């Protein structure tokens, strides 16, 4: 039996949380697998519960049409749902973000054909209840179809995922090299003899699956050359690999020219790594082709590499969103976390960006709060330093991500246990600081920062 023609359903579940927002969100890993599967001759269908512009969401009586802000972002549809018991002390609404459940059920019921295999993805570890409910729903509609689970949560916590989600098959890490063989194995089909991964390193996401494509998330690399103590990038991808700049430029031009996409968000952990050989030539290509696009540096860029040339190129190429990684003013912690930034380097980066044409208050700088051995005064000093430079503070709440150095530090200091519910790693509940100082004191601290930073929006961002 040949694998060609087998039907694959890709499913990106909802977000269950106290807050969520569409910052150019796309299920990149799932879409990369889609590209490989399509090349092998399989028939692919996608249900992305976070697709705000899906035709099924148009003209809903209870929900206005999705709006897109000037920077390409916007709000998800949300519905309040019961809070898990561990959140009972949190005085906030807990919601399902994304497509209403009845719309998702309608899409499942109206699939062109019954899938032979279902691929379910996962992201934040503390969003696992949404993955669990998605798996339950998928099994209600297709009880005999093999369910394969992958993604960040599945990779970081495979035992937990196997216990709480119970997929038929679970894979960890990048899957493009073995997904075709896995699908062949679970369907009893013969895998194709010849395969080719587009661009060598890893495939370009299959955005063709979106009927209404408003923004494109781009990842030029996988893994990270840095060793940040709070980040799981190197856990998920120990080897640092990168697509060619030429292929990324072609991807931007392709989606702009064929689908009129304007907003492109880079989600690399080290976008400026070897900038002279990579991002700078890429930006020159965008400028040379006169592509009228808006570029967004969604993850924090390393300030020491934001030189005058890069700042000018990013501005000319349509760079709209600029985020810089700073984390803390404490020089000892700067060194212990990865030695990737100093206070002077942040200052110089902001000066270079200003010279290129950016207003200081439009430059976002990540400041980290809630580390196991961090005092509020350190975070406050870091905030004040950024504000004194005239930049915008993006306050990032720490999450103890399994297998990272800070996760182990939290365990060693007695603030965390490997047996704690993953729900409590949610950045919104201040996993470590709430145990040290109480939840309300943490909220008061955030409100204090908001007041100090009134001239611009303060966004409490996910670290994971």
How do the helices and strands line up, and which of them pair or pack?
Blueprint: E1 7-12, E2 15-17, H1 28-39, E3 43-48, E4 78-80, E5 95-97, H2 101-109, E6 117-120, H3 128-141, E7 147-149, H4 152-156, H5 158-164, E8 169-170, H6 179-187, E9 215-218, E10 221-222, H7 233-236, E11 241-242, H8 245-259, E12 263-266, H9 279-288, E13 294-297, H10 308-316, E14 319-327, H11 331-337, H12 343-356, E15 363-369, H13 376-388, E16 392-397, H14 405-412, H15 433-437, H16 439-452, E17 461-462
Parallel strand pairs: 1-3, 1-6, 6-7, 7-8, 9-12, 12-13, 13-14, 14-15, 15-16, 16-17
Antiparallel strand pairs: 2-5, 4-5, 10-11
Helix pairs in contact: 8-9, 9-10, 10-12
Description:
The chain is an alpha/beta fold and 464 residues long. The protein has 2 domains: 7-187, Cobalamin-binding domain (Rossmann fold, 3-Layer(aba) Sandwich), CATH 3.40.50; 207-462, tm_1862 like domain (pyruvate-formate lyase- activating enzyme). The chain is 33% helix and 15% strand. It has 16 helices and 17 strands. It has helices at 28-39, 101-109, 128-141, 152-156, 158-164, 179-187, 233-236, 245-259, 279-288, 308-316, 331-337, 343-356, 376-388, 405-412, 433-437, 439-452, and strands at residues 7-12, 15-17, 43-48, 78-80, 95-97, 117-120, 147-149, 169-170, 215-218, 221-222, 241-242, 263-266, 294-297, 319-327, 363-369, 392-397, 461-462. It has a 7-stranded parallel β-sheet with strand order 9-12-13-14-15-16-17, covered by helices on one side. The model is unreliable at 457-464 (pLDDT under 50).
């Amino acid at each position: 039996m040949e694998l060609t023609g087998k039907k694959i359903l890709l499913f990106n579940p909802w977000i269950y949380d106290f807050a969520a927002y569409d910052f150019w969100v796309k299920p990149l890993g799932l879409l990369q697998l889609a590209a490989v599967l399509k090349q092998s001759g399989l028939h692919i269908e996608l249900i992305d519960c976070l697709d705000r512009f899906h035709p099924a969401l148009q003209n809903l009586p209870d929900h206005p049409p999705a709006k897109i802000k000037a920077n390409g972002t916007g709000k998800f549809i949300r519905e309040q749902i019961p809070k898990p018991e561990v959140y009972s002390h949190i005085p906030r609404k807990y919601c399902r973000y994304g497509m209403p459940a009845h719309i998702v059920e309608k899409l499942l019921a109206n699939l062109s054909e019954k899938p032979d295999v279902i691929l379910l993805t996962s992201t934040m570890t503390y969003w696992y209840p949404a993955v669990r409910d998605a798996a339950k729903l998928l099994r209600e509609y297709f009880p005999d179809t093999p369910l394969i689970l992958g993604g960040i949560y599945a990779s970081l916590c495979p035992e937990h995922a196997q216990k709480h989600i119970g997929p038929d098959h679970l894979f960890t890490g990048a899957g493009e090299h073995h997904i075709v063989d896995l699908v062949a194995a679970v369907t009893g089909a013969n895998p194709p003899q010849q395969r080719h991964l587009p661009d060598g390193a890893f495939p370009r996401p299959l955005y063709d699956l979106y009927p209404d494509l408003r923004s494109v998330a781009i990842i030029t690399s996988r893994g990270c050359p840095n060793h940040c103590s709070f980040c799981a990038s190197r856990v998920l991808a120990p080897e640092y690999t990168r697509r060619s700049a030429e292929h990324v430029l072609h991807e931007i031009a392709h989606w702009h020219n064929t689908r009129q996409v304007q907003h492109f968000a880079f989600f690399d952990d080290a976008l400026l790594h070897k900038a002279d050989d990579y991002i700078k030539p890429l930006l020159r290509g965008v400028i040379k082709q006169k592509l009228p696009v808006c570029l967004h540096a969604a993850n924090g860029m390393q300030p020491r590499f934001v030189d005058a040339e890069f700042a000018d190129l990013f501005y000319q190429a349509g760079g709209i969103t600029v985020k810089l990684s700073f984390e803390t003013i404490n020089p000892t912690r700067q060194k212990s976390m990865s030695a990737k930034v100093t206070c002077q380097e942040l200052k110089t980066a902001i000066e270079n960006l200003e010279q290129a044409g950016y207003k200081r208050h439009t430059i976002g700088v990540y400041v980290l709060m809630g580390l196991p051995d961090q005092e509020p005064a350190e975070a406050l000093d870091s905030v004040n330093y950024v504000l004194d430079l005239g930049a915008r503070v993006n306050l990032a709440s720490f999450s103890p991500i399994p297998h990272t150095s800070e996760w182990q530090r939290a365990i060693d200091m007695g603030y965390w246990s490997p047996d704690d519910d993953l729900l409590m790693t949610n950045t919104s509940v201040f996993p470590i600081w709430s145990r040290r100082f109480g939840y309300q004191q943490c909220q008061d601290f955030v409100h204090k920062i908001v007041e100090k930073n009134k001239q611009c929006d303060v966004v409490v961002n996910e670290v994971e």
